[in-house]
Amino acid sequence: MSASLTALARRRLARDRGAVAALVALVATALACLIGPFLTGHAPERIYPDFVRTTPSLSAHPTPDEIRPALDRLAQRMRVTLEDVRREGGQVRLTLNAQKPIDPRNLVLLPRSDLFGPATVIERSPDGRRLVVEAPLRRLHFLLGTDMLGRDLLTRCLVAGRVSLLIGLVATLVALSLGVTYGAVSGLVGGGLDALMMRVVDILYALPFVFFVIVLLVFFRAGLWLVLVAVAAVEWLDMARIVRTQTMSLKSRDFFRAAYALGSDTGAVLVRHAVPNTLGPIIAAATLLVPRVILLESFLSFLGLGVQEPATSWGVLIAEGARALEAAPWMLAAPAGFLVVTLMALNRLGDGLSDALDPRL
């Protein structure tokens, strides 16, 4: 496309407020997935045993109701009796008793927990069987709650978004490269070559996708790259058919005949006329292909053929949330919310780009 047509398409897109809002939402989601995990204060693999299946909240943890049960568990591990607990601002003061002298080294269990910092002995009885200890309270926030293991769900959703968006974008780019080239050549050349190329597409359509993935597992380990190869290897077929159909409909147009009459070869017509005039359907199909790839990755991960732990994706999190729907519905709502927003933004942006890049307008 010439610079003037590109600028015109950009102005058309800018006037479409819905498409601009969708683009902003996609950029914000991508930036959140890239930068957000460094700002949440939680490592994605960090397990908080004291906060398993914690509900979403804006309040800091531990709450007053969570302090005493956690201290009772720690006292049992230290083999002492928790006589008194007092909370003073950001500190907690404990009075510990035992039948034998208490070893101060056991107090390292406090900072090893999720709730308390390093402990300081304030008072000690002469026989060592009674200690008064003071420890700072940690302030933890779980805006979207935690999962079945006690991992922060917001951090995991953001990290999972990196994998899902990477799979969607890379597989879509590969599918576009193969599908557009293959379909445009097939539709423009026509004849016996077109029939042969379409029969190859039909044969590939007939191959069961799961069987194809299982064959790949014979040669490669299950993981992210296997998903990329498997999805990119089959998702270009629809794109090839779409571009072929559009190209064949354009061959009878006057500007195609004029290009050949002016001495343009097949390659020049393909690059300057065929592909630019099919950009509208291509962009629309591509924006629908990204969410389909993400959902396909979810299916593979659900079967254990896709992304493997400790890595995760929105599909993996949705599968985990579906299994824990009754006990922890937020585990499904959080990743599903990210996925739904992304899919809606992609669809709306695709509509805007399709209109902006339509050369007939």
From TrEMBL:
The ABC transmembrane type-1 domain, residue ranges: 161-350
Subcellular location per the Swiss-Prot or TrEMBL entry: Cell inner membrane; Cell membrane
Residues annotated as transmembrane: 20-39, 163-185, 205-234
Gene3D superfamilies per UniProt: MetI-like
Statement: the UniProt record of this protein carries the keyword Calcium: no
Keywords per UniProt: Cell inner membrane, Cell membrane, Membrane, Peptide transport, Protein transport, Transmembrane, Transmembrane helix, Transport
Membrane topology: Multi-pass membrane protein
UniProt-listed PROSITE patterns: ABC_TM1 (PS50928)
GO cellular component: plasma membrane
Gene Ontology biological process terms in this record: peptide transport; protein transport; transmembrane transport
InterPro entries, sorted: BP-dependent_transpt_permease, MetI-like, MetI-like_sf, OppC_N
Positions in coiled-coil regions: none
Signal peptide: none
Family: Belongs to the binding-protein-dependent transport system permease family. OppBC subfamily.
Protein name: Oligopeptide transport system permease protein OppC
Taxonomic source organism: Methylorubrum rhodinum
